[in-house]
Amino acid sequence: MANFEISVAHLYGNLMNTYGDYGNIIALTYYAKQIGVAVNYHLVSLGDDFDADSFDFALFGGGQDYEETIVAKDLKNKADQVRHYIENDGPLLAVCGGFQLLGHYMVMADGTRVDGIGVMDHYTINMHEPKLTTLNNKRLTGNIVIKNNDTDETYHGFENHQGRTFLGKNERALGTVISGNGNNGMDQTEGVIYRNVYGSYFHGPIFTRNGNLAKRVLATALSRKYPEVDWTEKLDQIETETF
Amino acid sequence: MTLKSTLARITAKSSYWLLHDVLHRGGTSLPGKLAVSIDPNILTKIQQDFELIIVTGTNGKTLTTALITRVLQAGGYTVITNPSGSNMIQGITGTLVTAKVKPSPNGQKPVAVLEVDEANVEKIAAAIKPKMFVLTNIFRDQLDRYGEIYTTYDKIIAGIKHAPEAIVLANGDSPIFTRGDFTNERKYFGFNHIQPADYNPTVAPINTDGILSPTDHSVLNYDFITYANLGKYFSTTDSFVRPKLNYQVTSITDLTPKYSTFSIDNTPLRIEIGGLYNIYNALTAFAVGREFNVDPEKIKTAFESNAQIFGRQEALHVDGKDVIIVLIKNPVGTNSVIDMMVTEKDDFSLLALLNANYADGIDTSWIWDAEFEKLHDTNIKAVATGGERYKDLRVRLKMAGFPDQAVYEDLTQIVTAIKSLPTDKVYIAATYTAMLQLREQLGAAGYIKGGF
Questions:
Q1: Does any CB of chain A come closer than 8 Å to the CB of residue B228?
Q2: Contact A20/B366, CB-based, under 8 Å?
Q3: In the UniProt entry, which residues are flagged as the active site (chain B) (predicted)?
């Protein structure tokens, strides 16, 4: 029996899980199990309360346009709790649509503007926006490699998005694009780091292909709940999957 | 017929003859291309020769089309159909203009049963008014190529709108087919094999799409689910329910990897292929047959006397081992294959092969939405992985709880791989281009006759 446990919230996991995002939880659970930590999974969806203080990690994945508009409406009711979770240094991975909806707004390919909850300072315009200086009217699709400037780690993944995201104040990129397009194809940024929030356009999913990042976020979540244990040291002793 | 369309037809037929009978090469695209270049309206001009049925959807098009063909033939119709893979506009044009249409033995108009790629439905329906649209299912499939499920359905609807008189015969178990603002008559087929006393209200697993009610966008509940998001759904917030079914599976007797027995509208049937999803294909063909007044007993005979049409799930022998090859290409299809493996009574090994070329889908993320964890419910004894993206698949299966895997980076070792597995029965699950490479290797080693 595991002596330790963490609670994971999968935000709108039944609607925003279009690109294998659940794999991030599979990877997190895989590493947690090896160091004696149980992971309790909770789906938090339409109409459900998100009680920020009950969770040690949250995943907010990507979805199809239709589902994303439905989720955007419901998310407004959870905005205060999500803000509380983030400002309280709760670890969160937001992918694609989830990443977009934490920001101010996103514009779909057909021009429909969907309001985010603005708990983070980025915004997303669409591929037809004239202010784009490159790759206008094209989806950004393909393999991508980035380098995390804080840690020098390299991350591999696959991007497939039409939206172009621009980071705001107090936000820094998850990494600098080495190959591929990243947030907008223009400024070489990919994803976001803000407090303990990691945002990204990476599918793959990012934790499965980049075990170093998965372990870092897991250590953050565990250290927040059980500060007396050296989680990084424990995680350093198990094999990391990167490919 | 005008001189132009006659010339177009003659040209197509002679190029077909040249390709097939002289050069012995397959394909109907070139004859189609030639015919259209001579007479762009050729399809419209030949439409009075037959009734058209368009079969479309994500999974099951090919087998469903083959089954409908046999069912209608059993009912005395002359049937024209397109070869698997020729499901876009040029291949279809080639099929139609080169077909020799004889009168139906039953005195009815001949029928063209065409498997049509979702994005090509509108082009075909604009040229020829179909009598019927048959919609199998819409699942997420290679997002980098096809896009989202509602976008795919919109493309099909654009075709349906060209033929308001056509019947839309759709899978009623799939909530998406209750959507769409077209006025055509709709008929539905689905599963009703579970008695109300045994209903077990549930929601769809999180890794499925298309689970929102078209009325108020609430998450649908189900009395039962057959697979993925298919089943008997209802809304908990309003009166939206699955539409009344015109044709239904009334019982399932036996599910095995090699055959299934079940009843449709109380007619007992057997098909020589495993997998619940294949019962949907049979149900679809049954429904079309009944719409064309084919007697249920004749449909039964059509299913049972044409075992070879189920040949896509290939079985062969490699030095005493029973090898079964299955195609995997998206999460729902892969989960269906795993469900079939749950019905396997013998011990078996799995060799899983992943490529990510254009035809496979270049994004491998989908393997994380397939529930490989469920393999623990089967008699699986060993797992091996391979293909160009063996690294992805190795980690996927490792994280699913299969840490010990033989890994084959190179498919030239495939025969060695098969022989090294510990069981007499071996399932090989491969993506499209991995399957082609696999067949080439097995052909070269003499295990598949005539190469591939």
A1: no
A2: yes
A3: 363
Strands (E), A61-195: 92-95, 105-107, 113-115, 123-125, 140-147, 154-161, 164-166, 175-179, 189-190, 192-194
Residues making up the binding site of A for substrate? 139
Q: Are residues B238 and B350 in the same domain?
A: no
Q: What is the pTM of this model?
A: 0.91
- Note whether B280 and B391 are same-domain residues: no
Other beta carbons less than 10 A from residue B48's beta carbon: 9
**Over the stretch B88-133, which tens digit does the pLDDT of each residue have?**
888 888 888 888 889 999 999 999 999 999 999 999 999 999 999 9
**Structural domain boundaries, residue B395:** 315-444
Kindly report the CATH number that applies to the domain delimited by A4-236: 3.40.50.880
Tokens encoding B319? 């030095």
Residue type, A153: E
Closest-approach residue (CA) in chain A for B389 = A243
Q: Which residues does A58 contact at the CB level (< 8 Å), separation at least 6?
A: A8, A9, A10, A11, A85, A90, A91, A92, A93
Q: Are A100 and A161 in contact (CB under 8 A)?
A: no
Task: Delimit the domains of chain A by residue range.
Answer: 4-236
Partners of residue A62 in chain B, C-beta under 8 Å: none
**Tokens matching residue A227:** 């500060």
| Peptide bond between residue A205 and the one before it cis (omega within 30 degrees of 0) | yes
Number of domains in chain B: 2
Q: Return the SS3 of B365.
A: helix
| ipTM surpasses 0.90 | yes
Question: pLDDT tens for residues B9-46?
Answer: 777 777 777 666 666 665 667 777 778 777 878 888 77
